[in-house]
Design brief:
This protein is mostly helical. The protein has one domain. It is built from twelve helices and two strands; from the N terminus they run ααααααββαααααα. α3 packs across α8. The radius of gyration is 21 Å and the shape is globular. It starts with a helix and ends in an 8-residue tail after the last helix.
């Protein structure tokens, strides 16, 4: 797949324009809560844009690449659903006002998109140079799948080093100031808790990328398709958060379904590497089979989950803490 620098530049410009429109036009000066109806409308818009882009790939590059993009997008979207519970925990822990949640999620996702772009560039370069990288990616996915099946704390939020450092050294106010990241207290400019929450969302999503980037490289090795599939999946994540809400608790078997998908893609990567090294019995799994497995697993998981009812293994969301308690070590207002 040959993608010119002009196409790359135009694609990135369009993606940035969509994000800017969401932040500064659609949501500007809008203090209403993001209702389910609004979330459903904008979710449909973003999914429609993703589908239109896929049709464009089909028209200009052929059905094979369009299928790779579709598989990558569906995989990234499905992986993001289970991550939504972690976002709910973060927003509850820092007591983010409902009308400000859209802004902080979008800002965090912009950071994640930039960092994922760097991950994709490094991963693509490594794959193009070293075939054995597929073994590593495959092993990571299989290990992740085993962890999902075992269960545990995949839905817990643990502060990472970046977040702990930010809370310790960055001057931060005790109270929110609308949706602003900067405020002035006693003549001193400082960050609001919104900035800390943004760092938490963005850095946590980067950790999610450690699973999702190898997964999509198992479906396509085209950097352009990997980046665009991630971008469209991330851009709609905010709306998906407000649309699904408590529905994540009803997806009882989601983790098992995702484990099967990740395990399948991991085995596919390992088989692909063996195939590239000339191992005769190792097949190269076709794209259509990957799509069938992913789609079939998601449908079966969703139907089985809704039939089983709400999950009971989830711990309740933590009680929302006052902003001053949620930001230990922040500068206190005098």
């Amino acid at each position: 797949m040959s993608v010119s620098p002009l196409v790359w530049g135009a694609t990135i410009a369009v993606i940035l324009a969509i994000i800017a429109a969401d932040l500064f036009l659609i949501h500007r000066n809008d203090t209403r809560e993001f209702t389910t109806r609004r979330a459903a409308f904008w979710s449909a818009v973003y999914i429609g844009l993703a589908v239109l882009f896929g049709l464009g790939v089909w028209a200009f590059y052929g059905g094979e690449y369009a299928a790779q993009y579709a598989g990558g997008f569906v995989t990234e979207k499905s992986l993001s659903v289970d991550n939504l519970f972690v976002f709910m925990v973060i927003l509850a822990r820092f007591a983010v006002p409902k009308h400000a949640q859209h802004t902080v999620l979008m800002a965090g996702i912009v950071i994640a998109l930039l960092l994922r772009g760097a991950f994709i560039a490094v991963g693509a370069a490594a794959i193009a140079t070293f075939t054995w990288v597929f073994f590593i990616f495959g092993a990571v996915l299989v290990w992740t799948a085993i962890g999902l099946v075992r269960g545990g704390d995949e839905d817990e939020f643990k502060e990472n080093a970046l977040l702990r450092w930010a809370k310790r050294v960055i001057p931060t106010s005790e109270e929110y100031d609308g949706s602003r990241f900067l405020t002035r207290r006693n003549g001193r400019r400082m960050l609001t808790p919104m900035a800390i929450v943004m760092i938490a969302i963005g850095s946590t999503d980067v950790l999610f990328a450690l699973d999702s980037i190898p997964a999509i490289f198992g479906l396509t090795t085209e950097p352009y398709l990997v980046f665009t599939a991630n971008a469209f999946a991330l851009m709609g994540l905010v709306q998906l958060y407000f649309l699904l809400g408590g529905l994540t608790d009803r997806l009882v078997y989601l983790a098992h379904g995702l484990a099967f998908i990740l395990g399948f893609i991991g085995v596919k990567l390992i088989l692909h590497a063996l195939h590239e090294y000339g191992v005769g019995w190792a097949p190269d799994v076709p794209t259509w089979l990957s799509l069938a497995v992913i789609a079939g697993t998601l449908v079966a998981t969703t139907v089985a989950s809704l039939a089983a009812g709400p999950r009971v293994s989830r711990e309740p969301l933590p009680k929302a803490e006052p902003a001053a308690e949620a930001e230990t070590g922040a500068t206190r207002e005098k």
